[in-house]
Specification:
10 strands, 14% strand, single chain, alpha/beta, globular, five-stranded mixed sheet
Length: 403
């Protein structure tokens, strides 16, 4: 993973400048020792999780994961990088009633595994998903089979989900009480589906460890202070543009991580995830010619020469003959390079994070970088990176409307 910053004159910043772009060592050491990152060193827990998950998924044709927010997005980000999955894995994080009903008209209870994830054990959306499946299984006289093929990931405490799991002898994994949902990607919440998908978790952890042990190599500029300092208060949005479909759900995970952590006390910078090349046709005009209130991060990969070849004869004597003798990867490479060069020539402040290959090692690095930057930014903004108090009122009202 290589990180390059453009149009940022670091050499002109003094140590006392409010706009200083150097990480504070004390803050970094605190972040590095957080349980959500230190869990990568717990080999005993990893091997136990691998054993449980392999036994659970054995002889199953499909795995369905139920959870919302941090109980879902991290696992999807990891699953997203797997192009050759060992088994079909589906994720359900919403409760659209018609879509959900249509998706479960025909359930193969014998060969499907169900993973139910909720840290608190009281998440209404997840409990409703679980409750619907229990009702269907009971009606179809498959309840015992359903429970036998279910895995619950939750805190081991008095809660609706945990108590139901114990009562019905459902297999459980403990959700670490010291790791919040959006930070749980390296815990069993994220890695359980990743193990089923065939990902090498040790390589994932190795990538995370590489960043933790070589912070200065990977984190040259403090994004938090760059975006939030009074001298740069015109930054209202942080755009992250990913140039690979394998990073689509990384982008969605990042949106939750950044939004729920930073957006407090009338403070915050809005994260926006754009997809290259798709959003070059829908958003790039605004980014280049609209208000200069955005900072950009481009996450790129090596696409040159990759993918299927383009038919040559189709482009004979056409204005698109530049596509002859090219692969689809060549076009992705050219568009990626052209966009970055355009931003460079127009003096935008931005950075490029380059992942030559998108695999377990590189995604482990990228995830760790994102977590560290997010928590450090919260520290400089003087907000708690681990809570989300503003959403509690909505949760209370939801329950009131159902009574």
């Amino acid at each position: 993973m290589d990180i390059q910053y453009y149009n940022l004159e670091k050499k002109n910043l003094s140590i006392d400048d409010e706009n200083i772009l150097i990480f504070d060592e004390k803050i970094l050491n605190t972040i590095k020792n957080l349980r959500c990152l230190q869990i990568i060193n717990d080999k005993k827990l990893l091997y136990k999780t691998i054993e449980v998950i392999r036994n659970f998924s054995n002889s199953k044709n499909k795995i369905i994961v139920f959870g919302t927010g941090g109980s879902n997005l991290g696992a999807r980000a990891l699953n997203n990088i797997s192009l050759n999955r060992n088994i079909d894995i589906e994720f359900f994080d919403n409760i659209d009633p018609l879509f959900f009903e249509n998706s479960f008209k025909n359930i193969d209870y014998n060969n499907t595994g169900f993973i139910i994830v909720s840290k608190s054990g009281e998440t209404p959306e997840t409990l409703s998903q679980f409750g619907v499946l229990i009702e269907k299984a009971e009606q179809e006289k498959k309840l015992n089979t359903f429970f036998e093929n279910t895995l619950v990931v939750t805190e081991y405490k008095n809660s609706t989900l945990y108590n139901a799991a114990k009562k019905n002898n459902i297999l459980t994994l403990e959700h670490d009480k010291d790791i919040g949902g959006r930070y749980s990607i390296f815990s069993n919440v994220g890695i359980a589906p990743a193990i089923i998908a065939g990902l090498d978790i040790e390589q994932l952890y190795l990538g995370a460890k590489e960043v933790l042990e070589n912070i200065d190599k990977y984190i040259d500029i403090n994004i938090g202070k760059l975006l939030y300092s009074s001298n740069n208060s015109n930054y209202n949005s942080s755009i992250i543009m990913t140039y690979s479909d394998s990073l689509y759900f990384f982008g969605k995970w990042y949106l939750q991580l950044w939004s729920e952590s930073l957006g407090k006390e009338n403070k915050g910078i809005t994260p926006i995830h754009s997809v290259g090349t798709t959003d070059q046709h829908s958003q790039l005009q605004l980014y280049l010619d609209g208000p200069k209130d955005k900072f950009f991060t481009f996450i790129t990969s090596d696409h040159f020469g990759k993918g299927l070849k383009i038919n040559n004869k189709f482009f004979d004597n056409t204005s698109a003959d530049y596509l002859k003798n090219k692969s689809m990867g060549d076009l992705m490479f050219a568009e990626q390079k052209a966009t970055i060069e355009t931003f460079k020539r127009n003096k935008f402040k931005f950075r490029q994070i380059h992942l030559p290959l998108i695999n377990e090692l590189s995604i482990g690095k990228l995830l760790t970088l994102s977590i560290i930057e997010t928590i450090a930014t919260c520290t400089y903004m003087d907000v708690n990176p681990f809570n989300q108090p503003a959403v509690e009122q909505g949760k209370i009202l939801t329950k009131e409307y159902l009574r």
